[in-house]
Design goal:
The chain is mainly β. It is built from no helices and eleven strands.
Length: 119
């Protein structure tokens, strides 16, 4: 099992910045990818950014150039630096970890943290 805990959400004005952090604990060996997803009211959950154990990153087109994902603490923590925030970035942000095994890939999720961009 992998436990994920997010922190750093809150209310910010358009154009502002926030940094989200996610700490992983539990059975960490085998985690291949960590990342962030978000879900806005009335919408489905969507990928924001991911980073793999090989160091590759992937971003949603809507956040490229504004958001940066960092994997830290020997891979046990992943952060999301969000700059130039827009009202459409308002959502609950979820940390995700994908762990591989002989049985396949298991997704683990944090409880989520609210990000609100509003003046």
């Amino acid at each position: 099992q992998v436990q994920l805990v997010e922190s750093g959400g809150g209310l910010v004005q358009p154009g502002g910045s926030l940094r989200l952090s996610c700490a992983a604990s539990g059975s960490l060996p085998g985690i291949e990818t960590m990342g962030w997803y978000r879900q806005a009211p009335g919408k489905g959950r969507e990928l924001v950014a991911t980073t793999s154990s090989r160091g590759t990153t992937d971003y949603a087109d809507s956040v490229k150039g504004r958001f940066t994902i960092l994997r830290e603490d020997a891979g046990n923590r992943v952060s999301l630096q969000m700059n130039s925030l827009k009202p459409e970035d308002t959502a609950v942000y979820y940390c995700n970890a994908k762990k591989g095994s002989v049985l396949g890939t298991t997704n683990y999720w944090g409880p989520g943290t609210q990000v609100t961009v509003s003046s």
